[in-house]
Amino acid sequence: MTISREDIEKVAVLARIRVDEAQVSALEKDLGNILDLVDQLSAADTDAVEPMAHPLNAVQRLRPDEVTETNQREAFQAIAPATENGLYLVPRVIE
Amino acid sequence: MQWDIVIGLEIHVQLATRTKIFSGSSTAYGAEPNTQANAVDLAMPGTLPVPNEQAFRYAVMFGLAVNAEIERRSVFERKNYFYPDLPKGYQTTQLERPIVGPGYVDIDLASGDTKRVRIHHAHLEEDAGKSLHEDFHGMTGIDLNRAGTPLIEVVTEPDMANADEAVACARKLHGIVTSLGICDGDMSQGSMRFDVNISLKPKGSETLGTRTETKNLNSFRFMEQAIAHEVERQMDILEEGGTIVQETRLYNGDRDESRSMRTKEEANDYRYFPCPDLLPVEIDDAFIDEARNSLPELPDARKTRFKEQYGLNDYDAGLLASDSKLAAFFEATAERGKDAKLASNWVQGEFSARLNAEEKSVADSPISGAQLGDLVVRIADNTISSAGAKKVFEALWSGENDNVDAIIDAKGLKQVSDTGELEKMVDEVLASMPDQVAQYQQESDPKKQKKMLGGFMGPLMKASKGQGNPKLFNEILVKKLGG
């Protein structure tokens, strides 16, 4: 299993991680090694195995539909870089 | 060239739970920004989601209502993308094992036929927050109150062939979720959001064309317009030899325009994977049976009942039964008004027209079903004419007065139905119009005679100051002229 420079660049864009030219070669090697390791798993016959959704063999507990949270906007917004009129402000997003 | 239109719908239904799908924050509408966004909704480190049982119950109720298979074991996936109104950087949704499997709804067509539209599946997921692009010094404002509101996304098969069928299907699903009480159905507030997938193919061809997805349809009228608009746009491109780009388009109903929002190729790499924060959810037969037992009357069953109980025809029954609030209003009107057919005419006619004109929903109506029922009583017992009834309706609607009989008295709308008095008026009017009387009596065609009666009605209404009972006037005229 190999990973191309293009793959790395694309994944970096999708993950919003800045990767410079010099790092791409190192990542190519490291990620390639990880994929090779994982690739060994494909030797196992999984035809009759249902894909595992979760490593814990347990079932999700559900919660009754009751309001348990109170308004803590002030506490949360105290650590936000910018707020106004109760809104969080972020760099302008235009679709 | 002749084209086949192929339409499929994706519908986001906001579930009317009290709290969010993965946290105990309130979902009440209209709260101050970010006052209903807690640590889980804000994706603070170290928080864990705990699913809301009611969201599952509502999803199961929907599944049962559309004749679908219910998945006993459902799994949540993460759909990864970056947008500021999605603090986690992923939407928790269902991909491989949606809770509602294949089902169907039958829709009524204008031709009187029914058509089956297949439901591909429906899955549970969380809503995102809201981005406000007004000017905040060149920045965007984010309100996360909506983040984490439970949704079911319903995906139909591409079984619709024109705008009418698509709107009929949308109305049907709207009627189902509002009747179930799992969604308030308010499209203008985004409680129910329809996306329309449209493609064209040469008539009779088996191969589907490239489709586009049109979003932002916040009324059924806009949905109809948007489909017509997009079909025309695609047809123009294809007939000029161009190709359709698979993309998402935003429709602007006020201007009847659409624009490209994003092309799928660019962004469609969501890297789904099972959410490690959530275990699989298992639903047992008891849970499903309980949901089944709690199902209220659905539009199809209500339609049948309206036909039997009120003697309505198929069309009227279907229309009134389609929306639970309209149906309840009609029943209140019919119960008080006694004459169900007349109640049906007024609810579908004057009342619905007035709601549409003012872009109001039944819930916002200034008058009650019982009030309209009182009006129906007075029309049925001939106290007022239909022209007078419209005046009473106006007064009720504007809030001038809330009592039908008081309005009739105050406005002097009571019809004169005293036959002796009416006969006297007829005699006087006929005496003053000898030429017309002679003409009528010489006419041998009963159809033309009937038309000629209208010529006497104007003077009669004038003589009675608009208060003579037109039906009785008519009867007396025929009797006197004929003899």
Automatic annotation (TrEMBL), chain A:
<dbReference type="GO" id="GO:0006450">
    <property type="term" value="P:regulation of translational fidelity"/>
</dbReference>
<keyword id="KW-0808">Transferase</keyword>
<dbReference type="GO" id="GO:0050566">
    <property type="term" value="F:asparaginyl-tRNA synthase (glutamine-hydrolyzing) activity"/>
</dbReference>
<comment type="function">
    <text>Allows the formation of correctly charged Asn-tRNA(Asn) or Gln-tRNA(Gln) through the transamidation of misacylated Asp-tRNA(Asn) or Glu-tRNA(Gln) in organisms which lack either or both of asparaginyl-tRNA or glutaminyl-tRNA synthetases. The reaction takes place in the presence of glutamine and ATP through an activated phospho-Asp-tRNA(Asn) or phospho-Glu-tRNA(Gln).</text>
</comment>
<dbReference type="InterPro" id="IPR003837">
    <property type="entry name" value="GatC"/>
</dbReference>
<keyword id="KW-0436">Ligase</keyword>
<keyword id="KW-0648">Protein biosynthesis</keyword>
<protein>
    <recommendedName>
        <fullName>Aspartyl/glutamyl-tRNA(Asn/Gln) amidotransferase subunit C</fullName>
        <ecNumber>6.3.5.-</ecNumber>
    </recommendedName>
</protein>
<keyword id="KW-0067">ATP-binding</keyword>
<dbReference type="GO" id="GO:0006412">
    <property type="term" value="P:translation"/>
</dbReference>
<dbReference type="Pfam" id="PF02686">
    <property type="entry name" value="GatC"/>
</dbReference>
<comment type="subunit">
    <text>Heterotrimer of A, B and C subunits.</text>
</comment>
<dbReference type="GO" id="GO:0005524">
    <property type="term" value="F:ATP binding"/>
</dbReference>
<dbReference type="InterPro" id="IPR036113">
    <property type="entry name" value="Asp/Glu-ADT_sf_sub_c"/>
</dbReference>
<comment type="similarity">
    <text>Belongs to the GatC family.</text>
</comment>
<dbReference type="GO" id="GO:0070681">
    <property type="term" value="P:glutaminyl-tRNAGln biosynthesis via transamidation"/>
</dbReference>
<dbReference type="GO" id="GO:0050567">
    <property type="term" value="F:glutaminyl-tRNA synthase (glutamine-hydrolyzing) activity"/>
</dbReference>
<dbReference type="GO" id="GO:0016740">
    <property type="term" value="F:transferase activity"/>
</dbReference>
<keyword id="KW-0547">Nucleotide-binding</keyword>
UniProtKB/TrEMBL annotation, chain B:
<dbReference type="GO" id="GO:0006412">
    <property type="term" value="P:translation"/>
</dbReference>
<dbReference type="GO" id="GO:0005524">
    <property type="term" value="F:ATP binding"/>
</dbReference>
<dbReference type="InterPro" id="IPR014746">
    <property type="entry name" value="Gln_synth/guanido_kin_cat_dom"/>
</dbReference>
<keyword id="KW-0436">Ligase</keyword>
<comment type="similarity">
    <text>Belongs to the GatB/GatE family. GatB subfamily.</text>
</comment>
<dbReference type="GO" id="GO:0050566">
    <property type="term" value="F:asparaginyl-tRNA synthase (glutamine-hydrolyzing) activity"/>
</dbReference>
<comment type="subunit">
    <text>Heterotrimer of A, B and C subunits.</text>
</comment>
<dbReference type="InterPro" id="IPR023168">
    <property type="entry name" value="GatB_Yqey_C_2"/>
</dbReference>
<dbReference type="GO" id="GO:0016740">
    <property type="term" value="F:transferase activity"/>
</dbReference>
<dbReference type="GO" id="GO:0070681">
    <property type="term" value="P:glutaminyl-tRNAGln biosynthesis via transamidation"/>
</dbReference>
<dbReference type="InterPro" id="IPR006075">
    <property type="entry name" value="Asn/Gln-tRNA_Trfase_suB/E_cat"/>
</dbReference>
<dbReference type="InterPro" id="IPR017958">
    <property type="entry name" value="Gln-tRNA_amidoTrfase_suB_CS"/>
</dbReference>
<keyword id="KW-0808">Transferase</keyword>
<dbReference type="InterPro" id="IPR042114">
    <property type="entry name" value="GatB_C_1"/>
</dbReference>
<comment type="function">
    <text>Allows the formation of correctly charged Asn-tRNA(Asn) or Gln-tRNA(Gln) through the transamidation of misacylated Asp-tRNA(Asn) or Glu-tRNA(Gln) in organisms which lack either or both of asparaginyl-tRNA or glutaminyl-tRNA synthetases. The reaction takes place in the presence of glutamine and ATP through an activated phospho-Asp-tRNA(Asn) or phospho-Glu-tRNA(Gln).</text>
</comment>
<protein>
    <recommendedName>
        <fullName>Aspartyl/glutamyl-tRNA(Asn/Gln) amidotransferase subunit B</fullName>
        <ecNumber>6.3.5.-</ecNumber>
    </recommendedName>
</protein>
<dbReference type="InterPro" id="IPR017959">
    <property type="entry name" value="Asn/Gln-tRNA_amidoTrfase_suB/E"/>
</dbReference>
<keyword id="KW-0067">ATP-binding</keyword>
<keyword id="KW-0547">Nucleotide-binding</keyword>
<keyword id="KW-0648">Protein biosynthesis</keyword>
<feature type="domain" description="Asn/Gln amidotransferase">
    <location>
        <begin position="328"/>
        <end position="481"/>
    </location>
</feature>
<dbReference type="Pfam" id="PF02934">
    <property type="entry name" value="GatB_N"/>
</dbReference>
